[in-house]
Amino acid sequence: MVGYFDDGNSGSSIIRDEKILLPDYLPDELIQRDHELQYIADCIKPLLGKRMPQNLFIHGSSGTGKTTCVRYLIRQLSEQSSSILPVYVNCWENPTQLAIYNKIVEEMRLPLPRRGLAADEIFDKIMQFVKNYKKPILLVLDEMDAIRHEELLYVISRSNEKMLAFGIIGISNNKSLLSKLDQRIRSSLRFSEMEFQAYSEEQLSSILRLRAERALEPASFDEKLLLKIARSVEDGSARVAIERLWKAAKNAEHASKSKIMIQDLEDILSDTSAFKKQELNLSPEESFILELLKSGELGSTELYTLFSKKYDKSKRQIRYYIDSLEQKKLIESNVVESGSTFKSRIFKLMDRK
């Protein structure tokens, strides 16, 4: 009988701490975004003095550090002060007014009756909490373009007329989102805007170096490899660059090497299907999404439904596969409106011409 686990190499020869190379990892130190971090912090600071903050809308392409920077500052804020309640909401996962209110209540740790409450009843409880504890809320709306009911933003903005209740940070890949909001909302919230530019090769190299130093064995990589990875990322996405470092490390380990070679990177960038280099060893789930889209574009609900017939995955997991395909420039999406309040995404294959 073949002993598949008998090679004695159950440990890792290259990767010391894999979580540092994974998408959801929040580093202890952020580099190459000092200006952006300081600007965001300056917008938030008035809340610490119980004054009105500067609401902020952050936009930029995927992998430019928008969410990471905001989450980093939220963590720092929570460690330094208890006078503000930071609430992070991914609006793709929580697109409705009720879902967003429930996320706020979760952070407040407020018990709700089992019978359930209407959205306006929950909001009244949120406002009562703010009044009783004199604790304003810093509400971060990531993927803000996925919010289905803009009225939520109007209700929140009007709440500040009675007392200091909310500061808002919106995050989106869609830079034109604000211009599409109702004029009442734009006037009430008065967002300042900040764009996150794509990283340069030099910036990507330094980000990769920091991650590699903390995640990999010291002699398992060199500067030539890191620069090669940085140069392979056409859109300046740190997320894609880190993913390529991780996959190259896994490729080298699989071959029982003690160092990641340029060939390991080239292996994962090789053209293994009809798609080009961006494919990067697609998972079965990613490949299935591409198969679904070959017959034409699909709305988010339809895509989820078809996907769920084959794979039992949460919406968060499905979103991860979709994000991965978008970062590899294999699919693209657009936000569309259906009626006056409902928004959805339409997905389609990228034009490979």
From TrEMBL:
<dbReference type="GO" id="GO:0005524">
    <property type="term" value="F:ATP binding"/>
</dbReference>
<keyword id="KW-0547">Nucleotide-binding</keyword>
<feature type="binding site">
    <location>
        <position position="211"/>
    </location>
    <ligand>
        <name>ATP</name>
    </ligand>
</feature>
<dbReference type="GO" id="GO:0016887">
    <property type="term" value="F:ATP hydrolysis activity"/>
</dbReference>
<dbReference type="InterPro" id="IPR027417">
    <property type="entry name" value="P-loop_NTPase"/>
</dbReference>
<feature type="binding site">
    <location>
        <position position="199"/>
    </location>
    <ligand>
        <name>ATP</name>
    </ligand>
</feature>
<dbReference type="GO" id="GO:0006260">
    <property type="term" value="P:DNA replication"/>
</dbReference>
<dbReference type="Pfam" id="PF13401">
    <property type="entry name" value="AAA_22"/>
</dbReference>
<dbReference type="Pfam" id="PF22703">
    <property type="entry name" value="Cdc6_lid"/>
</dbReference>
<dbReference type="InterPro" id="IPR003593">
    <property type="entry name" value="AAA+_ATPase"/>
</dbReference>
<keyword id="KW-0235">DNA replication</keyword>
<dbReference type="InterPro" id="IPR014277">
    <property type="entry name" value="Orc1/Cdc6_arc"/>
</dbReference>
<dbReference type="InterPro" id="IPR049945">
    <property type="entry name" value="AAA_22"/>
</dbReference>
<dbReference type="InterPro" id="IPR055237">
    <property type="entry name" value="Cdc6_lid"/>
</dbReference>
<dbReference type="InterPro" id="IPR050311">
    <property type="entry name" value="ORC1/CDC6"/>
</dbReference>
<comment type="function">
    <text>Involved in regulation of DNA replication.</text>
</comment>
<feature type="binding site">
    <location>
        <begin position="64"/>
        <end position="68"/>
    </location>
    <ligand>
        <name>ATP</name>
    </ligand>
</feature>
<comment type="similarity">
    <text>Belongs to the CDC6/cdc18 family.</text>
</comment>
<protein>
    <recommendedName>
        <fullName>ORC1-type DNA replication protein</fullName>
    </recommendedName>
</protein>
<keyword id="KW-0067">ATP-binding</keyword>
<feature type="domain" description="AAA+ ATPase">
    <location>
        <begin position="52"/>
        <end position="195"/>
    </location>
</feature>
